[in-house]
Write a structure and sequence with these properties.
By secondary structure, the protein is of the alpha+beta class. It has 6 helices and 12 strands. One of its GO terms (molecular function) is metal ion binding.
Length: about 260
């Protein structure tokens, strides 16, 4: 996966630009920063966004260059989905719910990935690869190359999550925070850049389907745990997230029930 990602971003610009779009509704697109339509300051990142599930609906739209891209990314995305489902089952059990609860709660499911490329930055102190934010999806599986850049907020300070060879970083997103009624917390994180080395990362975002209604199980709402968020569809949530942009504050606060 990392090899074909690097090969793609080392293609001539004319070849890469065949995939370019700043339309967030496109299932396959190359873009830069986060939302170039609304940002006043851009982030130091190029990314290739790929929708991955169901695989047969999207793979023919993926880049055909480099030649091994579709096969390698297709295999990786299939294995990533299998792992995401296992994680969701384990999280369900940890909350005292039936093993398949979270999987069922996410409707028809959706999966996409961002193949991120952070080139060396001549003045890294002036920008971020991505500023502090919380992921909008349910669970993220992050594959990193050997270059550090990811940081998480813990106890009031930013802590580096250095790459471990052969390992994935698993990140909880806002949808699991809502589905667990705040038992699980989404993680505030950011990406810094450097002046010496390019960096590749591949987050796989596992999500509810757009029409899935996100609400916790009745067993998770009791006298000690009031309903933290009103029910909402993932489509409703994502539109708020996209319009708000990447901020340290979570979009979830907009879905608190009215007292």
């Amino acid at each position: 996966m990392l090899r074909v990602a690097r090969e793609f971003f080392h293609l001539p610009e004319s070849e890469r630009l065949k995939c370019y779009s700043d339309d967030p509704k496109k299932a396959i697109r190359l873009s830069t920063s986060f939302n170039v339509r609304t940002e006043k300051v851009s982030n130091w990142r190029d990314f290739l966004r790929l929708h991955c599930y169901p695989l047969e609906s999207f793979i023919d739209q993926w880049p055909s260059n480099p030649p091994a891209f579709r096969e390698a990314v297709g295999t990786y995305s299939t294995e990533a989905r299998a792992l995401a489902l296992r994680l969701l089952e384990a999280i369900s059990e940890s909350l005292g719910l039936e093993r398949g609860h979270m999987v069922k709660a996410m409707g028809r499911h959706a999966q996409h990935m961002a193949v991120n490329y952070y080139p060396p930055c001549p003045q890294p102190e002036l920008t971020y690869g991505l500023p502090g934010h919380k992921d909008p999806n349910a669970v993220t599986l992050l594959l990193q190359d050997g270059v550090s850049g990811l940081q998480v907020r813990r106890d009031g300070r930013w802590v580096a999550v250095n790459p471990v060879p052969g390992a994935l970083v698993i990140n909880i997103g806002d949808q699991l925070q809502a589905l667990s009624n705040d038992r699980y917390k989404s993680v505030l994180h950011r990406v810094i850049v450097n002046s010496e080395s390019e960096r590749i990362s591949v987050p796989t975002f596992y999500c509810p389907s757009p029409d899935a209604v996100v609400a916790p199980a009745e067993a998770l709402v009791d006298g000690g745990h009031r309903l933290a968020y009103r029910p909402f569809t993932y489509q409703e949530y994502y539109e708020e997230f996209w319009n708000m942009g990447l901020e340290a504050a979570s979009c979830l606060d907009r879905f608190r029930p009215i007292a």
